[in-house]
Write a structure and sequence with these properties.
It contains nine helices and eleven strands. It is of the alpha+beta class and 331 residues long. It folds into two domains: 102 residues, Phosphorylase Kinase, domain 1, CATH 3.30.200; 199 residues, Transferase(Phosphotransferase) domain 1 (Transferase(Phosphotransferase), domain 1, Orthogonal Bundle). The strands form three sheets. Strands 1, 2, 3, 4, 5 and 6 form a six-stranded antiparallel beta sheet that branches. Strand 2 and strand 3 form a beta hairpin. Helix 4 crosses helix 7, helix 5 crosses helix 7 and helix 5 runs parallel beside helix 9. The radius of gyration is 21 Å and the shape is globular.
Length: 331
Amino acid sequence: MTAFDFSGLQPDFIIDALQQLGLDISSGLTALNSYENRVYQFSAWQGDAVQPQKYVVKFYRPQRWTAAQLQEEHDFAFELAAADIPVVAPLLLDGQSLLQYGGYYLALFPSRGGRTLEIDNDEQLAMLGRFLGRLHQVGKARAFAHRPAFSVESHLQQSREVLQALALIPGYLRPAFDTALDQVIAECARQYQPKQLIRLHGDCHAGNLFYTREGPFFVDLDDCRSGPAIQDLWMMLSGDRHQQRDTLELMLEEYEQYCDFDPTELKLIEPLRAMRMVHYMAWLARRWQDPAFPMNFPWFATDKYWEQQCLALKEQLFLLQQPPLSLVPDY
């Protein structure tokens, strides 16, 4: 089975898998928005339930994570849930959360609804700050044994190898693109020197957060890794430096009620932003043989996209060369 092979996930196969788990399906399957995995919502009877319940089943992308890495994600979710931190943890079936069927790893979750977090809503950002402080307090308690860490090697150097072999980048842009990429990697290698790595959500942006009156919550921890605490905070920052500082101060005031924050990590924001940018390009390249990707990201194969990425790399290099964001106002 290849890393992009979801061809076997036909409706009959999925329903058979769910029935093997003891679920009596009472609805159709609704595909949810997920490119990395395949995720479906459905209703089903289970056990002695008096009415059907809504569930979500996730089929993990083959060859992306090992069984040990997937189980460690689940265990982290259970640990957070036990600390009353609002993460939707997988369900246990016969004591197991990581399940297998037909060569796929899968997991079953309760279906939970909510609204998308509004990053310009101060009340919601304050609640998110408290949430992340509590999450990181648990994250510091122990280290991952199997999940990887954010690193220049994984996010930049390995990504460069993928992009160097990518035929989609037009030849006339190659010299400028490669030069800008090399300069960004060199600057990140110099600047990205985190003092402490903790267990993180890892992909904390508004699209991965939901909100109810009780507060924000994550639906899963699919991208959890080890890294500096600022990784789970910086993607909530937008606007100019003044706006970013105000947002960060708002979140940290709540965050530090539960977990200490090292302000020297602010200098890691732009290296982490560069790592995310380059890793995203390489992620699309790695997944390009998955039919879902050319269908949903057609612009990835256009010259205009790569011209924009070349410019974005040069702009990111400029940001890397500026003084880092500070909690002390600029005068």
